[in-house]
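Record format v2
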Amino acid sequence: QVQLVESGGGVVQPGRSLRLSCAASGFTFSNYAMHWVRQAPGKGLEWVAVISYDGINKYYSDSVKGRFTISRDNSKNTLYLQMNSLRPEDTAVYYCARTPQWLYPFDIWGQGTMVTVSS
Amino acid sequence: DIVMTQSPDSLSVSLGERATISCKSSQSVLYRSNNKNYLAWYQHKPGQPPKLLIYWASTRESGVPDRFSGSGSGTDFTLTISSLQTEDVAVYYCQQYYTTTWTFGQGTKVEIK
């Protein structure tokens, strides 16, 4: 069935780096734009980044611009989020989500992976 | 960025009664060229990923019960649950996908009275 599975979360010290992965299955990954969305403890959903189906176009929220990099490997059906210079306020559950077209809602979400930034 | 503001922040409704959530955007999310509102609603339960309920402001996603409905245009939108069920207890978010900074409302928590 259609599935997105995130991995790579964990506890990391401020200033360090972490890379999240999102493995896709059950659909043609290379046809879809992909997003990262996060939810800090007790807070709402915050859109983080998007990458086009071909990996050419990328956009970021102001809160992560310059620190996070979204990428994808269509041959491996996998989405990535490289997170550098992590801050305590980056602590959140990180979800990957797909969208059938560029300006479209997110129809399938992964279960999420927890990232905790703490010394 | 387009700011999405929901009201109320929380809502307590009796079983079988109507629940209504409002969402206002800081600018119109209506594309004149196709007359579509780039507005979606999601349901989020603890320990689960968000679930798409409504898109284009009023189109129900496949499999979503018809007690969920969306309405509105431009900057003002509403999600209505016509007869609240126990399984509807969740946080509901509106989202605009009109621009390349997809923003969510702050969420509305729906509980049983």
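DSSP finds no helices and eleven strands in chain A.
Chain A touches chain B at residues 35, 37, 44-47, 50, 59, 61-62, 95, 97, 99, 103-107, 109-112 (CB under 8 Å).
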